[in-house]
Amino acid sequence: MNISLVMIIASSLLAGCATKKEAEQPKSTSKPFEGKKITFATANHPWADTIKTLLPDFETKTGMKVEVQSYVDEQLTQKMTVQFTSGSTTPDVFMYRPLQEGKQFTKNGYLQPMDEYVKKDASYDFNDFYKPSISATTFDGKLTGIPLTTEQEILYYRKDLIEKAGISVPKTIDELVAAVKKLHDPNNGVYGFVARGQRSALVTQVSSFLFSEGGDFIQGDKATINTPEAIKAFTTYGTLLKDYGPPGVLNMSWPQAMGVFAQGKAAFYTDGNSFYQNATDPSKSIVADKVGFATFPAGKAGAKPASVISWGLAMNAKSADKDAAWEFINWATSKEIVLKTQQKGVQGARASVWNNPEGTKSFPSELVKVIKESSEIGVSHDRPVVIRVGEAREAVGGIVLRAILGEDVKGEADIANKMLQDIIDKEKTE
């Protein structure tokens, strides 16, 4: 046989073997989700606005297509409820409010537990999230969401007024009451204290007084809003508004209360830190350069401010592609992306980002210190954790209204406690 012919035949055989081996080997790809598609339902929120701008990079790196559906808050809740009730596999991922919908969505089996997912990748560093934030998205011992945005109850105060009076920033509730009384000067247009006075709106604010006195709305399966600790907390809050608050407090939610403070008409103000720019923006506040921030003052049980999750990210329990859904959640709540969303002013729940100068440079340094401390010591709810949260808030708010009006707090507390207990009992059997 011709030597050239032998060489040609041998080469052909070798090439054939190589081709066969290549066919047998799984094709590697840097885009494991190439061709995959998930749907993502969002609220019209600054966090979602930032995520939308970052999505093209995520889609390029993963090969996944993310279809975004945006709704206003209540519309989102209604849409999700209807779709989940019908057993829909979409959306795969969605924003939700843990303190509003968390318990109901968990009870109905709408939320996919993510305990195992967060353990898959060590670089995700699940332990980096503040513990109160994880507590807020955990129901029945299962992690049902990842925290997105946080808010802590803090004390706003006028630096110039306390300096002029020669007093220190209050570290206890007793010190706060004394300072409020000393700085109360209505004849010169300055009231000692302002906060929310509307029946339902005030509940989230009085919660920090309640926790710091050693109480809570519910303990176990029992309503506890008529305990001595609860009555003391509600009375303190109500009396501060009654004796040292501006006229019209019964009609005030946060915009009105913040407005009073920003116009220089109050020495102290307690509310969520997410509103701080309304007090520090010169275009909105005449005391912008005089505002101080402090950790919520301690009561009998210490300082226990509410540190809550406004929004979380969850996975549909019936999603057709849970691995793809988790890939998106993993990315959207990673250290890198939380840093980017926080740089846009969205307060995240990762300690590493709050310890990173790049993550805090847009916030007042005094406020950063307060946020970090409050995130460590805070309580993960600021209202009764029930499905009928609206009814529960009305019950609690009614007690505080009695205090603001100077009426029978204990009697109202006993009535309201029974109302809250009825809500708890009914929800256990439904």
TrEMBL record:
Domain of life: Bacteria
Pfam families documented for this protein: SBP_bac_1 (PF01547)
Gene3D superfamilies on file: Periplasmic binding protein-like II
CDD domains: PBP2_TMBP_like
PANTHER family found in the cross-reference section: ARABINOSE-BINDING PROTEIN-RELATED, DIACETYLCHITOBIOSE BINDING PROTEIN DASA
Name recorded for this polypeptide: Extracellular solute-binding protein
Organism: Paenibacillus germinis
Lineage: Bacteria, Bacillati, Bacillota, Bacilli, Bacillales
